[in-house]
Design a protein that fits this description.
Elements lengths: L20 H9 L9 H9 L23 H13 L5 H13 L3 H4 L11
Helix pairs in contact: 3-4
């Protein structure tokens, strides 16, 4: 396993098996915050004997998406999509996909009847 070729990471420690906590800290500091998601992977590599104990700090919930609508409201809207014939079928299907699976509306408009299995 190799650490990315970030400037400053010693080439002798470029493989994860010989990386030190300092190498990981440097790699984390030189990248985007999503690099901290490596935390669980590092725990796995240590548990399975691939590395020394290496850690990445947990960023907490800051920056993670929060629900836009409450669950009760979402389920009520889904019931409307499934039951209200007064709403156009295309809107009901699109609304159901958004409410159930969180699909992005711009992706939904690209769907065709024949291409729905590619979704």
């Amino acid at each position: 396993m190799r650490l990315s070729s970030s400037p400053g990471i010693d080439t002798r420690a470029a493989t994860l098996s010989v990386a030190t906590q300092s190498d990981v800290d440097l790699w984390l500091s030189q990248g985007v915050t999503t690099r901290h998601r490596i935390r669980h992977f590092l725990r796995w590599t240590y548990t399975n004997g691939h590395t020394a104990e290496l850690t990445a700090p947990w960023l907490g919930r800051e920056g993670l998406p929060s629900p836009i609508i409450a669950d009760d409201t979402r389920w009520a809207l889904l019931r409307r999509c499934l039951r209200e014939d007064a709403i156009a079928l295309e809107l009901r299907v699109a609304g159901s996909l958004v409410l159930l699976y969180g699909h992005i509306p711009t992706r939904i408009v690209e769907l065709t009847r024949n291409g729905s299995t590619d979704f």
